[in-house]
Design brief:
Layout lengths: L36 H4 L12 H4 L4 H7 L5 E5 L6 H11 L4 E5 L5 H13 L6 E5 L6 H13 L3 E6 L3 H4 L2 H5 L1 E5 L5 H13 L11 E2 L1 H10 L4 H13 L6 E2 L5 H5 L10 H15 L3 H13 L4 H16 L5 H16 L4 H13 L6 H15 L15 H5 L37 H25 L1
Parallel strand pairs: 1-4, 1-5, 2-3, 3-4, 6-7
Helix pairs in contact: 5-6, 9-10, 9-11, 13-14, 13-15, 14-17, 15-16, 15-17, 16-17
């Protein structure tokens, strides 16, 4: 690209070639009639931002960095509609920086090279490169940014709904300040909805429609802290009514029926929700477990994945306290396969409640861990000769199997024999559910074994 050519980015002193409806030098959006309400109502200053008090409070780190125009690269991490893009545009506006916006889904290396080349030639413009959905960039695209971020040719502001620790390269992450944005509270969303209803220039004020506070609050709650969804839903509702009409609770019914659950398969929501589900089952909270199960099902989670997790839970967290849990979980897994949704939801609910309400024991998990640690940290024990297979003439000549005591020939099948060269204590039963009886039984067997060994020593 020659120096005089224009891409979809623009230099600070060429507003005549800027994108329509956008202030080229600052990135502050000028409202256009065809823009959605959420775009028209974007804040124009930090003072207009709502929520996020933990990072936007006066005198806070981000506010001081912006006020002094001393910030480097920033990464904003948070759910959709929490204000990541708006905050980036406001920062560009308040620092009078050249603003270049890229969407990682549609961008490529060639475009990035052109943007960075122009930024190097125009250091006085103070280019802010805003990359929406930064997590979509692959490693080579992220690596391409490193030299210019390091030298300060551009100041990167990345926005992502995904945990940057998993999706952003460590070198790029180490050169950036990370700020977590939280979902907006219903009260914050209502404040902006009221502003949009009254604003004649950018909002819906020209139509003269009204909405009770309770209706706006219900709409805000349905949007789960996503301000963009709330504003666009409000616009649809208002434009569907005559001028000066009132938005009522009945008008929200269609929107409520089509409510979408924020749930991204194989990404953060997937891992966070299954984690909450597992911990709720482990923590004996059937109500929370059912809530997270319902969220996963509503979000389109693979029911077989949920069933597999229940099978794991049955042994990891219940184990011998209620061995029937494994039977139920495996049966549920098979049932989900041949029943399918939606009926399989009932099977998953059955198994979830069984596991959440079962007594818990992780003794199997702990015993396995102790056995692995013994193998890793101690000399590997040989199989005692008495326990080795005696099949074949060679094995018999080597004495394999000699001295083995057949358990069923002794009271309660306890012969007093050792099954390790150096005995280990790896399994400790818990006093939970059916495992309490196992603890009693093992204690009895230890007494019998000790008595037999004393008798054996006395005989020798």
């Amino acid at each position: 690209m020659s120096e005089g050519e224009q891409s979809d980015f623009f230099p600070a002193d060429a507003p005549e070639k800027a994108e329509p409806g956008r202030d080229a030098s600052t990135g502050a959006g000028a409202p256009g009639k065809m823009q959605p309400l959420a775009a028209r109502m974007r804040p124009r200053s930090l003072a207009e931002m709502v929520g996020q008090e933990h990072i936007l409070r006066p005198g806070g780190l981000l506010a001081r960095l912006v006020a002094g125009n001393r910030f480097g690269s920033l990464i904003f991490y948070g759910p959709p509609g929490s204000g990541k893009t708006s905050l980036a545009e406001v920062i560009a506006h308040e620092t009078k920086s050249r603003f270049v916006r890229v969407n990682a889904v549609m961008s490529n290396v060639a475009e990035l090279r052109d943007i960075l080349a122009v930024a190097r030639r125009r250091p006085e413009a103070g280019t802010i490169l805003f990359i929406d959905e930064l997590h979509r960039f692959n490693k080579s695209q992220q690596d391409l940014l490193l030299p210019d971020v390091e030298e300060g040719s551009v100041r990167l502001i990345g926005a992502t709904t995904h945990n940057p620790g998993f999706y952003v390269n460590a070198p790029l992450l180490s050169r950036s300040h990370l700020f977590r944005l939280d979902p907006l509270t219903p009260e914050h969303v209502v404040a902006v909805l009221k502003r949009a209803m009254a604003d004649v220039e950018r909002g819906l004020g020209a139509r003269g429609c009204t909405a009770a506070d309770g209706v706006l609050l219900d709409l805000a709650k349905l949007c789960d802290g996503d301000l963009r969804r709330a504003l666009n839903a409000l616009e649809v509702l208002v434009l569907s009514l005559p001028e000066k009409a009132a938005v009522t609770a009945a008008d929200l019914e269609t929107f409520a029926r089509e409510r979408r659950i924020r749930y991204d398969a194989d990404e953060d929501e997937h891992y966070d929700t299954i984690s909450a589900f597992i911990k709720s089952c482990r923590g004996c909270d059937p109500d929370a477990a059912m809530y997270w199960l319902a969220k996963m099902l509503a979000g389109g989670e693979d029911p077989r994945f949920i069933a597999r997790r229940l099978v794991i839970l049955a042994s990891e967290d219940i184990g011998l306290a209620n061995s029937q849990a494994l039977v139920v979980a495996v049966a549920a897994h098979h049932a989900v396969d041949f029943i399918g949704l939606p009926e399989a939801e009932l099977t998953l609910a059955h198994a979830t409640l069984f596991i959440a309400t079962s007594p818990k024991s992780n003794s199997a998990t702990e015993a396995l861990g102790a056995a692995k640690a013994a193998l890793a940290n101690q000399p590997v024990q040989s199989v005692p000769a008495a326990l080795r297979d005696k099949g074949g003439q060679a094995s018999k000549r080597m004495g394999h199997g000699q001295g083995y005591l057949y358990s069923h020939e002794f009271p309660e099948a306890i012969s007093g024999q050792e099954y390790l060269e150096k005995p280990l204590a790896l399994y400790t039963p818990k006093q939970a559910g059916a495992e309490a009886a196992i603890a009693e039984r093992l204690a009895r067997w230890r007494q019998l074994k000790a008595g037999l060994q004393v008798t054996k020593r006395a005989a020798t």
